[in-house]
Design brief:
Blueprint lengths: L32 E3 L2 E7 L9 E6 L5 E6 L12 H4 L2 H4 L9 E3 L8 E3 L2 H19 L4 E5 L6 H14 L3 E3 L5 H11 L15 E5 L3 H4 L1 H14 L2 E6 L11 E4 L5 H15 L4 H7 L3 H8 L4 H8 L3 H12 L4 E5 L9 H15 L8 E3 L11 H4 L10 E3 L3 H5 L14 E5 L3 H4 L3 H8 L5 E6 L11 E4 L8 E4 L5 E5 L12 H11 L12 H9 L7 H7 L1 E3 L4 H4 L59 E4 L15 H7 L3 E4 L1 H6 L7 E6 L2 E9 L7 E3 L35 E6 L2
Parallel strand pairs: 7-15, 8-14, 9-10, 9-12, 10-11, 12-13, 15-16, 16-17, 21-25, 22-24
Antiparallel strand pairs: 1-2, 2-3, 3-4, 5-6, 5-17, 18-19, 19-20, 21-26, 23-24, 23-26
């Protein structure tokens, strides 16, 4: 998940995000409860999820963890966490965990390793970087990271080394860009109603997220609304997933057609008098222009595009149109389609047409990234960042490493990588290009990891990393409203090291350790991150466990105006140069077919449309027991998921004479793979679903589903369209 840092503070200028401290009834971290021989530690789930759940962890007398559960006192976590984190002892004590540094002996990928000590490993990495810089310049080194931990210190310190050394920049595009951009294009800010208000809604619309699998706390509050208020739960998604099974109203749309549904709902709102014209006159830029544009966006028009019936669209529009407290919970599914930014903006616009923002339990929420005011300038070394250094796109690592001139920004090759917190050989698009790049003889790769991932298997040096219970860090929850402390609770194995340690030691060897931000402990960094925002320091946060940073109702619901200077919501955003929390730097050219994006909310087919040669659309949706490639190494998660499978609707299976469990082949111009078929109700004809993310080696041909996904830049500001693929399907 991408992050907000000093580059994005302009979006916050002038926002009255004052913090009104409320009573925190949680037991201080410094006062651990003790039950018999077990003490209870308090921390935060570090993984790449919007929830950042507050955790309580049983710690035995011998310093090992036992049961992990959600903190009841945290009003968002509310005692509920996902099953994969609840069984975390299975991961931290896994027999396959990396425990010693390793140097490659044989050919890349051959699995022939030699154990070395930390000093020699770090010396060799630094020496490789110095040689790469001497031959091709500093931009030949590319520090590459992502959200394997969402801890601010352990994740983002790598940026300080990058800026100090003028190594190639990192444009983190892979997870959030289309969703964040579409939301902020409308609101002007990345914040929204208190997500706990879902429990006060009369309709909760869960759109573009399989929350049961990926954000379980969304369901906690939605189901509370149902139990206490009789609220209806509506789910909009592309197949009948576990969240859909909890819905009172199921809307299964074809992939990439969400905007058509949104437009028809707004058409009906204007037609039937649900639109709040007085609200729009005060808070929106061009309601009359939107109404005129939507005149042709009828339910029948949308039905033809989405695969829904006219009756389903009419019923949905009436439900939200006649319910003031309609809460639209918009997810990251919008960040997986090439038209995702437009679709997010269209779905978001419904709340403005209806005036839902005015009511507690109403409005539209995606991410609260703007509310936290964390100061990471020192942590990330932004003071010495050079805007002229090229920025390479995370999602195009395959193209970067195989010498694509455009991906390299027409500069020299990347010949050295330092990788933390991510597994690109498994998770990135255009997997064949990625692996081809990693196999280059002239590419040096150092990977700091917890397990021997498929990326680590292709490295020259592998370093063992701590897990979140073994170091101090601080977290902020984009999907909720808390800043949370994750202190060290147990001792790590003697031979593993933190991310911060690796960055500090490399800085010493590379001659930049005297620059601002280096030489500090995790706790010192946390103090600097918190202080300027008025949040206190490490010790005060240790007393409170978390801080409720939710702004006042009027600010969260934009009742004092939206985030633009004129306070107006944008029905007609500037797709060419409008705001986004993760906008590409000026030295990156325009991304994708921006000129095709519409003036007002509309269906725009810049997606991979099915054709005669590729009659199916493929989505690579998340699995319940994995989180990206994390947890794919734990025994229970693998047992529960079974094996890689391709979901096919009964009509398509019958037409192609495919039985459940058959091996089929799918492919497109990027590659092909074999996979077992799973016949399921609740998918549209012509739509295939591969839940993952399974390791490549778990597939029949040793190549994973990302062989089929594309890395072309998405309009307007980049991203990776993982669910947007046209494919053929063959039987044997």
């Amino acid at each position: 998940m991408n992050i907000l840092d000093g580059r994005h503070l302009a979006l916050l200028a002038g926002l009255p995000l004052q913090y009104t401290k409320v009573m925190n009834d949680a037991t201080p971290i410094s006062a651990k409860a003790v039950t018999g021989a077990v003490s209870i530690g308090h921390t935060v789930c570090p993984h790449d999820c919007p929830s950042a759940c507050a955790l309580e962890v049983d710690i035995t007398a011998d310093g090992r963890i036992g049961r992990v559960r959600g903190a009841n006192a945290n009003t968002y976590t509310a005692g509920v966490i996902c099953a994969k984190v609840a069984r975390y002892s299975e991961r931290i004590y896994h027999p396959g965990r990396l425990l010693t540094p390793k140097r490659r002996k044989g050919a890349k990928g051959a699995g022939d390793w030699q154990e070395i000590n930390w000093e020699n490993a770090l010396d060799e990495i630094a020496d490789a970087f110095v040689k790469a810089e001497a031959k091709h310049g500093a931009e030949a080194i590319w520090p590459y990271f992502y959200a394997g931990t969402m801890g601010q210190v352990q994740r983002d310190s790598i940026e300080r080394l990058r800026h100090a050394k003028k190594y190639s920049g990192f444009f983190g595009s892979i997870c959030t860009n289309m969703a964040w951009t579409g939301y902020v294009m409308g609101t002007g800010a990345l914040r929204g109603p208190d997500p706990r208000e879902m429990a006060k809604a009369d309709v909760v619309v869960i759109w573009g997220t399989n929350a049961v699998a990926t954000q379980v706390n969304v369901m906690t509050h939605a189901i509370r609304a149902r139990k206490e208020r009789g609220a209806k739960i509506v789910v909009v998604d592309i197949y009948d997933n576990p969240t859909m099974k909890q819905a009172d109203m199921k809307l299964i749309v074809r992939p990439g057609t969400d905007a058509a549904l949104a437009c028809a709902v707004m058409h009906i709102a204007f037609r039937d008098g649900y639109a709040d014209r007085a609200y729009m006159a005060k808070f929106a830029d061009d309601p009359s222009g939107l109404e005129a544009h939507l005149a042709s966006k009828t339910p029948q028009w949308a039905a033809d595009i989405t695969g829904l019936s006219v009756e389903e669209i009419e019923a949905f529009a009436k439900l939200v149109g006649t319910t003031q407290k309609s809460f639209f919970r918009l997810g990251y599914g919008f960040a997986r389609q090439r038209n995702g930014a437009v679709a997010m903006h269209a779905a978001l616009s419904i709340a403005t047409v209806l005036g839902s923002w005015q009511y507690e339990g109403g409005g539209a929420f995606h991410n609260n990234g703007d509310i936290f005011r964390l100061n990471k300038a020192e942590l990330m070394g932004t003071a010495y960042a050079d805007p002229n250094v090229r920025q390479l796109d995370q999602s195009q690592i395959g193209r970067v490493l195989t010498g694509d001139a455009e991906a390299l920004r027409y500069g020299g090759p990347v010949t050295a990588l330092l990788i933390q917190n991510t597994n690109p050989v498994n998770v990135c698009p255009e997997q064949r290009l990625v692996k081809q790049g990693f196999m280059r003889d002239d590419l040096f790769v150092a990977v700091h990891e917890q397990f021997m991932t498929e990326t680590a298997e292709l490295a020259d040096i592998v370093l063992p990393a701590t897990m979140f219970l073994e170091h101090d860090d601080i977290y902020r929850a984009g999907g909720q409203n808390h800043i949370l402390l994750g202190p060290k609770l147990v001792e790590p194995p003697e031979t593993v090291r933190t991310n911060l340690f690796v960055i500090e030691e490399l800085a010493k060897r590379l001659g930049v350790s005297d620059m601002p931000g280096f030489g500090m402990t995790e706790r010192e960094h946390i103090d600097l991150i918190l202080n300027p925002g008025g949040w206190g320091d490490f010790d005060s946060l240790a007393e409170e466990k978390w801080i409720d940073a939710q702004p006042p109702f009027e600010v969260a619901h934009y009742l004092e105006g939206f985030g633009y200077a004129d306070g107006k919501f944008r029905f007609s955003p500037d797709w060419q140069s409008g705001p986004s929390p993760n906008k590409p730097p000026k030295n990156v050219p325009v991304m994708g077919p921006v000129a095709e994006l519409p003036k007002f909310p509309d269906q725009v087919d810049v997606i991979e449309m099915a054709d005669a040669e590729h009659p199916f659309r493929l989505a690579t949706s998340p699995a319940r027991n994995f989180l990206n490639s994390t947890f794919a190494e734990t025994k229970t998660s693998v047992q529960k998921e079974g094996r890689p499978e391709l979901m096919i609707c009964p009509a398509d299976a019958q037409r192609l004479n495919i039985a459940d469990g058959d091996v089929v082949q799918i492919g497109n111009g990027r590659g092909q793979l074999r996979i077992h078929a799973k016949i399921v109700e609740g998918a549209k004809a012509g739509v295939l679903i591969a839940e993952g993310l399974w390791p490549n080696k778990a597939h029949l041909d040793g190549e994973g589903i990302n062989v089929l996904t594309g890395g072309d830049a998405v309009a307007p500001y980049g991203g990776a369209a993982f669910h947007d693929n046209k494919v053929w399907l063959k039987t044997f």
